[in-house]
């Protein structure tokens, strides 16, 4: 007895004959995949099978043939899926290029309780424009998008999401939050538990997208660092996890460029992250280290830039086993301040200068790239040196400039908006005509439709692959149960590899399957870590039954196939339930918020560690400006909440 799918219908073979049960019901799959028929009358199915030794040869051959057909079908579907995925990527890339590979958004912070006057705003915000009226002057600033005060975190993320997908497609991506202290950079990037920001949402999204992409295998690593006064501090270093009262080690990492122009930060900790839960765990750890550093060293987040890097490794299939790497940088920049206004002195003044220098270097680089200048001044700051290979050709950049709605901050607001204007400088300072704008919009809509169509096709094919793989898996079990243990002797040509792929499908590295000596089943039937994970309770039941049947066949007794067993392989409803269940289960395990059970391994870059970590002094920030003191106190409170 075996299962085959011919003309997209499931058939059950027994004793060499195709049992032709009435195809009374056809389940129209609501996922768009072709309908799969299933049996409704169990009594029509054979219940007894004769001794394995007298099973005719042609039945065995038919079973082999069926498995080969399934293999071929899976290979073809995978190829088709790859082509659609390429179409989707192409469309997305064109959309991003049309919209501009360097985009600048502006977000207006709502009034806070601590704001003094909360009625009058010094500017008016449109969907792509901000007009500031100050001291009788009127200044206009254009953006790719303006997020007004009431914009939710979800709406902001919706605009950021396409660029993240571009990172998964192999492009380097940088997302920056820029603005005056207290205007909501950290709120946008990190957010709160109730309103998560771009980073936690991005982590969730990339793992969710990666699970949909089975045309290639994606793996991820994560690093976090802080740039403070030109020094780099590794936030995920095993040494960088002090308790609240302890000082944080300051590591001065160095930046290296390889022969291909690829940037490597020597000694920076890079942790493999297998799922969202682990990525979030590491991210929270990095944040905690940063907050402890603030309380001990620089007091406020505004005094440093915080960079989170997700490296995405795309592994091709066995035929083209090349590995591509792309980087996604999520950067919470230090607060831009006008030093004269704050009246900063001493350390605060130095910190402010360092931040302003690096922000201005970043502005220069982005403006040079936007204007397609031959020379791009990356070397002018540590920040731009680190990001050199992620800001240039083929990369996508998103700058989110934050402004305060308060009248007293209007000077800072104009500075931030001017920074954005410079970064956004259109090529040759020429604005495009309305006509061209319309054409661009129409083309973007077309491409968005193409992309959606390609996504739907990919999803349909994915469902078909899952079904075919499930059927192949089940046929393999039946083959083994019916015809005995010798895999090499019995399995069809090329079978072993496919079986391995179906059972293991190793998307993520590090969990090599090991042979189980105690298991008497052929190797291709033994469960692996991945298959065990995927197995639902009902699947396990099926395997259990197959094993007990297999045992009886080995001892030479005749095999009893009950109708219900036959149904368990062929019922589409159940089959779908199993698939849905396993999908739900894997999604849950991805999204669970719990700290990873196993202690996370830390992979430190092969390159040797340079500058020794020194213990920083505890420093106090001083400011003559009472407003700044209020801000610092607010930060201290926030830090102590975190610790
Ligand atoms: N869009 C928003 N909606 C609600 N609250 C916001 C918003 N933006 C900022 N806030 C609040 O404003 C305060 C300051 O925001 P945040 O700390 O994110 O500013 P920041 O620019 O990162 O400051 P710093 O440069 O000092 O780190 C926080 O209490 C934050 O919750």
TrEMBL record:
GO CC term (a single one): microtubule
GO terms assigned for molecular function: ATP binding; microtubule binding; microtubule motor activity
Region Disordered: start-end pairs: 527-549
Any GO BP annotation: microtubule-based movement
Residues given in the record as ATP binding sites: 179-186
Coiled coil ranges: 60-87, 429-471
SUPFAM superfamilies attached to this UniProt entry: P-loop containing nucleoside triphosphate hydrolases
Domain of life: Eukaryota
Residue ranges constituting the Kinesin motor domain according to the UniProt record: 101-426
Keywords in alphabetical order: ATP-binding, Coiled coil, Microtubule, Motor protein, Nucleotide-binding
Family: Belongs to the TRAFAC class myosin-kinesin ATPase superfamily. Kinesin family. KIN-14 subfamily.
Protein name per its UniProtKB record: Kinesin motor domain-containing protein
Source species of the chain: Rubus argutus
């Amino acid at each position: 007895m075996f299962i085959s799918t011919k003309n997209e219908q499931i058939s059950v073979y027994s004793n060499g004959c195709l049992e032709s049960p009435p195809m009374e019901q056809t389940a129209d799959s609501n996922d768009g995949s072709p309908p799969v028929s299933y049996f409704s009358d169990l009594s029509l199915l054979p219940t007894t099978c004769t001794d394995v030794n007298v099973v005719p040869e042609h039945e065995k051959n038919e079973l082999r043939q069926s498995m080969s057909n399934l293999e071929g079908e899976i290979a073809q579907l995978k190829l088709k899926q790859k082509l659609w995925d390429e179409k989707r990527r192409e469309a997305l890339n064109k959309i991003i290029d049309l919209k501009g590979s360097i985009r600048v958004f502006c977000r207006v912070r709502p009034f806070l309780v601590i704001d003094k006057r909360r009625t009058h705003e010094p500017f008016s915000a449109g969907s792509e424009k901000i007009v500031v009226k100050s001291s009788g002057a009127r200044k206009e600033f254009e953006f790719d998008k303006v997020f007004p005060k009431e914009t939710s975190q979800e709406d902001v993320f919706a605009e950021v999401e396409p660029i993240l997908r571009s990172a998964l497609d192999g492009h380097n991506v940088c997302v920056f939050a820029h603005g005056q202290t207290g205007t909501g950079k950290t709120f946008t990037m990190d957010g709160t538990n109730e309103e998560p920001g771009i980073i936690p949402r991005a982590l969730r999204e990339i793992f969710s997208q990666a699970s949909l992409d089975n045309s290639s295998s994606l793996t991820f690593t994560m690093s976090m660092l802080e740039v403070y006064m030109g020094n780099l501090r590794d936030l995920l270093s095993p040494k960088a996890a002090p308790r609240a009262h302890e000082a944080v080690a300051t590591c001065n990492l160095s930046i290296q460029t390889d022969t291909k122009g690829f940037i490597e930060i020597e000694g920076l900790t890079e942790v493999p992250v297998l799922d969202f839960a682990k990525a979030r765990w590491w991210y929270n750890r990095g944040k905690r280290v940063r907050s402890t550093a603030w309380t001990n060293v620089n007091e406020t987040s505004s005094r440093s830039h915080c960079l989170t890097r997700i490296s995405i490794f795309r592994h091709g299939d066995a035929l083209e086993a090349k590995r591509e790497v792309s980087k996604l940088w999520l950067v919470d920049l230090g607060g831009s301040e006008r030093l004269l206004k704050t009246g900063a002195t001493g350390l605060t003044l130095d910190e402010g200068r360092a931040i302003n220098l690096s922000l201005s270097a970043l502005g220069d680089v982005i403006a040079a790239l936007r204007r397609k200048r031959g020379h791009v001044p990356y070397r002018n700051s540590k920040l731009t040196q680190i990001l050199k290979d992620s800001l240039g050709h083929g990369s996508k950049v998103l700058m989110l400039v934050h402004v305060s709605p308060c009248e007293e901050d209007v000077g800072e607001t104009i500075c931030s908006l001017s920074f954005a204007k410079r970064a956004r400088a259109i090529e040759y300072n020429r604005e495009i005509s309305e006509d061209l704008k319309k054409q661009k919009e129409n083309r973007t809509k077309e491409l968005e439709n193409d992309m959606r169509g390609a996504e739907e096709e990919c999803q349909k094919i994915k469902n078909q692959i899952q079904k075919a793989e499930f059927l192949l898996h089940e046929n393999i079990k039946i083959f083994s149960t019916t015809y005995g243990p010798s895999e090499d002797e019995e399995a069809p040509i090329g079978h072993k590899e496919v079986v391995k792929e179906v059972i293991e499908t190793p998307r993520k590295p590090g969990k090599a399957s090991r042979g189980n000596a105690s298991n008497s089943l052929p190797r291709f039937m033994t469960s692996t870590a991945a298959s065990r994970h995927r197995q639902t309770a009902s699947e396990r039941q099926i395997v259990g039954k197959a094993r007990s049947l297999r045992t009886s066949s080995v001892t030479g007794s005749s095999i009893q196939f009950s109708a219900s067993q036959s149904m368990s392989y062929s019922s589409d409803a159940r089959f779908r339930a199993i698939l849905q269940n396993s999908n739900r289960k894997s999604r849950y395990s991805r999204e669970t918020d719990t700290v990873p059970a196993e202690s996370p391994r830390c992979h430190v870059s092969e390159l040797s560690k340079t500058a020794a970590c020194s213990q920083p002094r505890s420093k106090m920030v001083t400011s003559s400006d009472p407003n700044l003191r209020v801000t610092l106190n607010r930060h201290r409170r926030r830090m102590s909440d975190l610790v």
